[in-house]
Amino acid sequence: MIKYLKEYRFYIILFLFLLIPITAIDTSTRAPREYRAHDRLILGISSPVQAAITFTLDQVVSAFQNYLYLLNTRQENLRLTEENRKLQSSIASLQETQQENLRLRKLLAFQESFRLETVAAAVVAKDVTTEFRTIRINRGENSGIRKNMAVLTAEGVVGRVFRTTANTADVVTILDLLSAVDSIVERSRARGVVEGMTDETCQLKFVLRTDDIQPGDGLISSGLGGVFPKGVPVGVVSKVNRKAFGITQDVEVRPAVDFSKLEEVLVVTRQVSEPLFDKQVEKAHSEKSASAGTPEKSDSGAVAARSHP
Amino acid sequence: MIRIFLRAINAPILVLMVILGIAIQTAVFVRPPLSWIQPDVILVAVLWCALKRGFTEGGILTLIFSTIAEAHSSAPQGALLVSYMATYLAVRAAARFFVLPSRTTLIFLTLGASILWRLTNLEVMHLLDASENLWRHTLLYLFPSAMIQGALAMASFRALERFDWVTYKSARAQQLLEDEYNLDEEGA
After folding, report:
1. Closest CA to A114 of A234, A271, A233
2. Please, is B56 exposed, middle or buried when counting C-beta atoms within 10 Å of its C-beta (0-12, 13-18, 19+)?
3. How many CB pairs under 8 A join A and B?
4. Across the strands, what pairs with A219?
5. Minimal Cα–Cα distance from B40 to chain A, Å?
6. Is A39 in CB contact (< 8 Å) with chain B?
7. Is A241 helix (H, G, I), strand (E, B) or coil?
8. Rounded Cα distance, A57 and A142, in Å
């Protein structure tokens, strides 16, 4: 027996090398996944490095931009003193903070308009292959993030949480080939599924050929599936190819979120049901009450709206 | 004794280097235009194992590297394992039948392996019924990524050669070590 094992060692090992990957394949390609123990060990090493690199790069870019700004200022205004330079540097730094503040304010306004409980997170890394378009954020289970939570920005849908560790989470963006977001065309209410296609575009699938869709139409999430809140912008129709025959039409979509500039995201940890309709009904009621001269209802509505997180 | 220890820690350090390489790759090449020229650290490591390691050791390291890649990707579970293992075996077979005399040949081999890896990945995804939009991406990136991979291979193969030499893993260092043992034994 041992003799045969030794004689056919190469073939046995070759067989194992072929067998192990094949048995590891999981055919449920879209299902969220759990990190295994060894995955967590690997991420325990790589995640802090990713976070450190991202932080360092941000600092370097920021310093470089400040330097350029200072250089231009000095060239244009030769008589500026050292003190002025320091002031300009502070201004540049403040501007950076202001920009960040603006971005965060927009996120906050978005969160309030949809009545969501969210956790803000920064993007620290992307997928190791160019074929798949996952991003890694610097918040995980410790911040209350769980699998299948929606990830948004003020502009619209980013994706959904795919898997988590204690301090990081992987997010499958809507650009990913295996992503699918049930969406509605805002104008005609035609329904379809947005799937990832290239680094910049998505595809609206399963829309009937007879559905009225035009380039420039906005797409919003339908709320089906329970991952994304209803009414969040998904993208804008950029191209429609309606053939003379067939059941469906080819629709290309440009995402509402600019993924090339994605820095911060909001992870929706809890949704309050039917946010838009509640608000619209509330608004209509308050307007009606105001016209009828009963301001109490309007006030209570406002309080109710504020009391929601 | 130190030399044997250095040789023993060659593989764990290589794994650690790959993890750090992946961390750098995924954190630096996040946004365009850098994301368009993202190299593949795992592929370089797999090629190195195919060319400079024994069949079993190289295969096990390839499985480990593929697992590291899967921990950093949303690719369907097992897909990267199959793609990298197929590339490993193909390069190993190529190295068995063809002579790879210089570093330039290695770079051409890297170009070929990069193309092979992408096509294998496309086929795996096709079998998983998830390749509908992938072929477009594969065609777009097939040759540019191979060029980037070749450029990365130039620098990384030199560094890996140096690493193997320092840890007494390269054939020349091993030979020197054995010669020294033989001389010691004869002296004794």
Report:
1. A271
2. middle
3. 164
4. A185, A235
5. 7
6. yes
7. strand
8. 25
**Closest chain A CA to residue B81:** A21
Number of helices (H) and strands (E), helices first, in chain A? 6, 12
Each residue's pLDDT expressed in tens, for chain A with a length of 309 residues:
778 878 888 888 888 888 888 888 877 666 777 888 888 888 888 888 888 888 888 888 878 777 777 666 666 666 666 666 667 667 766 776 777 777 777 777 766 666 778 888 999 888 888 888 889 999 999 999 998 899 998 888 999 998 898 889 999 999 988 888 999 998 888 899 999 888 888 999 888 888 888 999 999 998 887 888 888 889 999 999 887 788 888 899 999 998 888 888 989 888 765 544 445 545 555 665 665 554 443 333 333 333 333
Let me know: does B124 contact B82? Beta carbons within 8 Å.
yes
Contact B123, B74 (CB under 8 A): no
**Token code pair at residue A221:** 């999430």
Contact B68 A195 (CB under 8 A): no
Q: Which residues of A touch B76 (CB under 8 A)?
A: 25-27, 29, 178
CA atoms within a 13 Å half-sphere pointing along the CA-CB vector of A127: 21
Measured between alpha carbons, how far is residue B99 from residues B102, B105, B106 in Å?
Answer: 9, 9, 10
Which of B73, B76, B85 is facing A17, going by the closest CB pair? B85
Direct distance between the N- and C-terminal alpha carbons of chain A, in angstroms, rounded to an integer: 69
Question: In DSSP terms, which residues pair with A171 in a beta bridge?
Answer: A135, A161
Residue type, A17: F
CA distance B13 to B144: 30
Which residue among A13, A42, A170 sits closest to B19, beta carbon to beta carbon?
A42
Angle at CA of residue B36, ends B34 and B39, nearest 5°? 80
For residue B54, give both structure tokens.
Answer: 């024994």
The type of residue at B2 is I
> Best interface-test mutation with A: which of B72, B136, B148 has the largest number of A CBs within 10 A?
B72
Residue-level length of chain A: 309
Question: How many angstroms separate the CA atoms of B88 and B47, rounded?
Answer: 7
Nearest CA in chain A to B136: A198
